[in-house]
Amino acid sequence: MEPEEKNEQQTDRGAYEWMQALVCSVLAAVLVFTFAARVVGVSGGSMRSTLQDGDMLLVMNSLLCSGFRQGDIVIAAKASFENGEPIVKRVIATEGQTVDIDFETGVVTVDGADLEEPYIREATHLAEGTVFPATVPEGCVFLMGDNRNDSRDSREPSLGMVDTRNIIGRAVCLLLPGKTADTDRRDWRRIGTLAGALS
Q: Do the beta carbons of residue 35 and residue 61 sit within 8 Å?
C-alpha cells in the first residue's frame, strides 16, 4: 500500500472515531438531561435571599429522588397555579405532618414545633387564604418560598398541598448565579452551593 493511501485511511479513521466520540457524547448528555438531571432557571424573588432571580440550578429528576424531605428546595408545576409554569420553593412539611402559621408573630410550626428557619428573609406575616392548621395528605408536600412576604406558595389555595407527582425534581447545586437584587452583581462565590438549604 502506498504511503499516501495509508495516510488517507488513517485520516479517515481518525475523523470517523472523532465523529463517533462526538455523537456518543451528545447522546450521553441528552440521556442525562432527559432522565437524570436538568438545568432550571429561577424567575422572580420568592426565594430570596437563598436564591436570586436568574440563578441557574442543577436539578435531579424526581424519579431519582428517594422521596422529599423537609428543607429540600424543589421545582414543581401544577396546572391550577401560575398557568402550570414551574416554580421553585422549599419543602416545609411532608405527608402526615401538620402545618400551622401564627401570622401575628410570623412563626411557622410543624407538628407543634416552631421551625428554625435561618434561610428566610423575614418572618411569615402574609396569609394567602389556606386555613391553618392544615395536615399534609398522603403523597403531598407543603411548599413555601424563603421570601415569605413576597411568595405565592402553598398558603394560596390555588396551589395548596402539592402532589409529589407534580414535582419535577430537587435542586442539587447552583450552576450559575444571577444578579443579587441588593447589589445588581453576580456573587460567583455562590456557585456549587444552595446557601440556606438544609443538609
A: yes
45 burial level (CB within 10 Å; 0-12, 13-18, 19+): middle
For domain 42-190, give the fold.
Umud Fragment, subunit A (2.10.109)
Dist. CA 28–CA 22, nearest whole Å: 10
State the Cα–Cα distance between residues 13 and 11, nearest whole angstrom.
Answer: 5
The 10s digit of each residue's pLDDT in 138-159 is 999 999 999 999 999 999 999 9
Residue carrying the nine cell digits 438531571: 37
Task: For residue 179, list its beta bridge partners.
Answer: 186
| Residue 198: φ, ψ to 5° | -80, 150
Instruction: List residues with catalytic annotation.
Output: 46, 89
So where are the chain's domains?
A: 1-35, 42-190
0.85 exceeded by the pTM? no
